[in-house]
Design brief:
Layout: H1 28-36, H2 41-50, H3 55-61, H4 67-79, E1 83-85, E2 91-93, H5 95-98, H6 101-125
Organism: Streptomyces gilvosporeus
InterPro entries: ArsR-like_HTH (IPR011991), HTH_HxlR (IPR002577), WH-like_DNA-bd_sf (IPR036388), WH_DNA-bd_sf (IPR036390)
GO molecular function, one term: DNA binding
Length: 126
């Protein structure tokens, strides 16, 4: 498969053991950062953690995401074993995908703290 720098190429999903954007080593952490750092990837995972959904429902929940980007993210996340789809067309996190939940929880807690601190700063400014 050609690289994304070739015209019209489709990027392959990052995987441990293969060079990824920003790292030629193929270390698992670098592959994970590349995969999860892709536009809308964490949002798709977050939404599926809340509840499995079909394509239209996922797109509705992630307002502003184009169909083509959602298609790409679902393809990549499926290719690497984080998402699966049933015969009914509903997307679910796999056991591996669901195992991301404890890793994302501290980020959610931090985001809530950040929001509260910014709200408090705005209150001090007024």
């Amino acid at each position: 498969m050609r690289s994304a720098s070739d015209s019209g190429a489709v990027e392959r999903a990052p995987r441990p053991g293969r060079p990824v954007r920003g790292a030629s080593t193929g270390r698992p952490m670098m592959a994970a950062l590349d995969l999860l750092g892709r536009r809308w990837a964490l949002r798709v995972i977050w939404e599926l953690q809340q509840e499995p959904a079909g394509f239209r429902e996922l797109r509705r929940r992630a307002d502003g995401m184009s169909s083509s980007v959602l298609t790409d993210r679902l393809r990549e996340l499926t290719e690497v074993g984080i998402v699966t789809t049933g015969a009914d067309g509903v997307y679910h996190l796999t056991e591996l995908g669901d195992a991301l939940r404890p890793s994302l929880e501290p980020l959610r807690v931090w985001a809530d703290r950040w929001s509260a601190e910014l709200d408090a700063q705005r209150g001090d400014d007024g």
